[in-house]
């Protein structure tokens, strides 16, 4: 089966390719020379995931996986959430700085990463899956691995940030891994129907 990752985020694509290695042939937009820019205007992660998945499917006719991820911080009433990519109005580094500043002096640092994936099998057949990783926001940046908010997120059960883990370690436990396991078991369960569209 071939699956197109409907994303321009190279960090995400790397992780998805690595998690699905040996199971599914994963393509990135670059692999098929597709250059799309999708406006993430949805109010929910699911809306945005579907929007991305559908847009890539319509341009490629290849089964596509849209993904939208948000970091939800308890003390900020779930923000930045669906606006995580645009939190500071600038890039990843500014986003992390802004979040650390907002939480400065606060003891409640609980947060979670939530990923919603939309598997677009054909026009009119879309399946959504969610993965959640709970943890807390560190007091400062630690580690350079990963991408996005990884250097300031400590997953539950660990004393280090995702930024301090090698990618194999993050990929074993992450929100993305949990959502992808659901995607895989759906495809295996429904293979007789799915293969008609996704081979
Ligand atoms: P696409 O829409 O092209 O997929 P994006 O970077 O806009 O790329 P999201 O909207 O899903 O993707 O990401 C929201 C933000 O959360 C963005 O700043 C990401 O860098 C960050 N992010 C997503 N997954 C992450 C992860 O596993 N670890 C750390 N940060 C992550």
Descriptive terms for the model:
single chain, 199 residues, alpha/beta, Maf protein, 7-stranded mixed β-sheet, 34% helix, 25% strand, globular, binds inosine 5'-triphosphate
Helix-strand layout with pairing:
Layout: E1 2-6, H1 10-20, E2 25-27, H2 45-60, E3 64-73, E4 79-81, H3 92-102, E5 110-122, E6 125-137, E7 153-155, H4 167-173, H5 175-189, H6 191-198
The structure holds inosine 5'-triphosphate (ITT).
Structure described in brief:
By secondary structure, the chain is of the alpha/beta class.
What does this protein look like?
This protein is an alpha/beta fold and about 200 residues long. The chain has a single domain, classed as Alpha-Beta Complex (Maf protein), CATH 3.90.950.10. The chain is about 35% helix and about 25% strand. The protein contains six helices and seven strands. Strands 1, 2, 3, 4, 5, 6 and 7 form a seven-stranded mixed beta sheet that branches. It is globular, with a radius of gyration of 17 Å. The termini are close together. The mean pLDDT is about 95. The structure holds inosine 5'-triphosphate (ITT). The site of inosine 5'-triphosphate (ITT) has 22 residues, from strand 3 and helix 3.
């Amino acid at each position: 089966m071939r699956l197109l990752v409907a994303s321009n985020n190279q960090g995400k694509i790397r992780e998805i390719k690595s998690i699905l290695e040996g199971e599914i042939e994963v393509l990135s937009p670059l692999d098929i020379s597709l250059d799309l820019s999708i406006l993430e205007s949805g109010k929910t992660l699911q809306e945005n995931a579907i929007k991305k998945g559908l847009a890539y499917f319509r341009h490629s006719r290849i089964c596509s996986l849209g993904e939208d991820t948000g970091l939800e911080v308890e003390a900020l009433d779930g923000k930045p959430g669906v606006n995580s990519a645009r939190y500071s109005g600038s890039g990843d580094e500014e986003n992390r700085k802004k979040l650390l500043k907002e939480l400065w002096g606060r003891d409640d640092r609980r947060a979670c990463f939530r990923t919603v994936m939309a598997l677009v099998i054909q026009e009119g057949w879309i399946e959504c899956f969610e993965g959640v990783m709970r943890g807390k926001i560190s007091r400062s940046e630690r580690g350079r691995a990963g991408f996005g908010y990884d250097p300031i997120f400590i997953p539950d059960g660990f004393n280090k940030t995702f930024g301090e883990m090698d990618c194999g370690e993050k990929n074993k436990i992450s929100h993305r891994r949990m959502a992808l396991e659901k995607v895989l078991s759906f495809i295996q369960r429904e293979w007789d129907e799915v293969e008609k569209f996704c081979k």
